[in-house]
Amino acid sequence: MRFYVPTEVYNAENCVERYATKLASFGKKALIVTGRYSAKKCGALDDVIKALESNDTAYEIFDEVENNPSMETVMKARDFGLKSNVDFVIGIGGGSPLDACKAISMMIKNKDKGMEMLYDAGYETTYLPTVCIPTTAGTGSEVTPYAILTVHKDKTKRSLPHKIYPVLALTDSKYTRFMSHENTVNTAIDALAHMLESNLNTNANLYNRAFSEYGLKIWGASKDSLINASLEEKDFNNFLNASTIAGMAIAHTGTSLPHGLSYTLTYELNIPHGKAVGIFLPGYLKEYAKNDSQAVKECLNNLDFKDIDEFKHYIDTVLGKVSFDQTLLEQDVEGIMANEKKLKNYPFKITAEELINFYDV
Ligand code: NAP
Ligand code: FE
């Protein structure tokens, strides 16, 4: 058995201020990578700037990362980072800026390489030190080695074959409180999916299950707050910690079929990541339970749901109705069935029809 999550993680109130010296310790000049608005709005960018300035560390800001970042955006930020001669990269935001920042740090380090390096596993993976500061509580990207980019030519999103581990993660739930409730729900469902897909996974072992089982418990303890939009401090903390713990779990196993099915829906219909994954979770558990009902029961117990029907009712309530064309789902499933890599984390044989039934309306 092996467990490897090399990121140094601090979770604390005023985490960036408290660990300012550490944050500034990776070189003379940082490239800060963010989305358009939220890093400013939630105060995280200001905190990072103060931390760097108080340690006489220079910085430049690239604030153009879009939701579900593209390869093109990564290359634009890489050119900017190279011109600015930066030594390390700090990502602030949801999974989009954090994933982008990992890919950017690799492309800056490999300045003589073109865009093709992103998806070519033949290149050795080297990258600048990368610090991640999450402002959503969902992806766990601050501790995972994954970066998922939009590949426009294939009309989908795809994980890089390179494993890029952040050197430092600073997590503080004060930032996540600025999210809209809809965003809070969608990102929390992403973390939930990570814990379920890691637990019910071909690669699962005692170590990652320990993370996912504990994560499911603290997620479950706060689940009602998502229904009535009544999150208190403890709930924001629970969702952020569950998200980081879930990241530690998938760092080991990868995700499984609900994530695989979600990418085309996000690309084609712009459905937010967590929501696009979440709609497949009840059907996934139902199908999985046909092969191993005990494992599914344990997950549901940890979340404090009595059965799959109660879980499905909960997911339908928090996510609302999501409808889309059956043909798109069929094409999506066809793509998955033809790709061994997308099926390998699901431990049982599965047919196209069973996969279609994951979308259990
Ligand atoms: P996101 O795409 O990073 O952000 C979604 C929206 O939330 C953006 O409009 C963003 O605004 C806003 N936002 C972020 N933080 C906020 C805050 N504190 N207050 C108010 N608004 C805030 O969302 P995400 O769900 O966190 O990340 C999704 C991406 O992560 C997908 O590309 C997905 O594939 C990837 N992902 C990666 C992993 C991994 O292991 N690496 C795992 C799961 C998912 P701005 O644009 O203004 O910042
Ligand atoms: Fe995810």
How is the secondary structure organized here?
Elements: E1 8-11, H1 15-18, H2 20-23, E2 29-35, H3 38-41, H4 44-53, E3 58-65, H5 71-84, E4 88-93, H6 95-109, E5 130-134, E6 148-151, E7 156-159, E8 168-171, H7 181-199, H8 206-221, H9 224-227, H10 233-253, H11 257-269, H12 273-278, H13 281-291, H14 293-303, H15 308-319, H16 326-337, H17 340-343, H18 352-356
Parallel strand pairs: 1-8, 2-3, 2-4, 4-5, 5-8
Antiparallel strand pairs: 6-7
Helix pairs in contact: 5-6, 7-8, 7-10, 8-10, 11-16, 13-14, 13-15
Share of residues in strands: 5-15%
Order of helices and strands: EHHEHHEHEHEEEEHHHHHHHHHHHH
User: Spans with pLDDT under 50 lasting ≥5 residues?
Assistant: none
Count of alpha and pi helical runs: 18
- Structural class given helices, strands, pairing? alpha/beta
- Give the strand tally: 8
C-alpha-based Rg, rounded: 19 Å
State the strand order across the main sheet.
1-8-5-4-2-3
* Hetero ligands: NADP nicotinamide-adenine-dinucleotide phosphate, fe (iii) ion
Helix content: 40-55%
Largest sheet: 6 strands, parallel
| pLDDT averaged residue by residue | 97
What gross morphology would you assign?
Answer: globular
